[in-house]
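Hey, I'm writing a tutorial for new members on how sequence and structure tokens pair up, and I'd like a real worked example in the thread rather than a made-up one. If someone can provide the structure for the chain below, I'll link this post from the tutorial.
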Amino acid sequence: MAESEGAYLLKEDKELLVSYKPIPLNFVYALHRNDFLYKSNEHVLKEQFKPLYEHLEYDHEPLQYLLIDGEFHGAVAGHFRNGPYDLNDVVCDLPDAEARKEEILAAVRDVNFGRGPERFMGKKI
């Protein structure tokens, strides 16, 4: 055993941690409102992303939330239906949203049976 910052760990693990370099996260997932990651943060996420879609002139309830590189950064806004949802827009707070547009749209299509949204950040696709 070895002590480190008031905690204990195996000596082998301490040696490994000295040279460990984390790999940066790089992924996009569109999570449904019933997903447990969303549900556990629901009260915060509703308020965080409401300013991004509340002003939209078309149907704009959040259908899915965007988990990008391990953090929530946006939502797919539209309208629930019995059948395919109306996917009206994708809104997010990333400063480089345009640079990651295709990656974000691919994640949205993955969870919507190949269907994509009509707009990205308010602009028709």
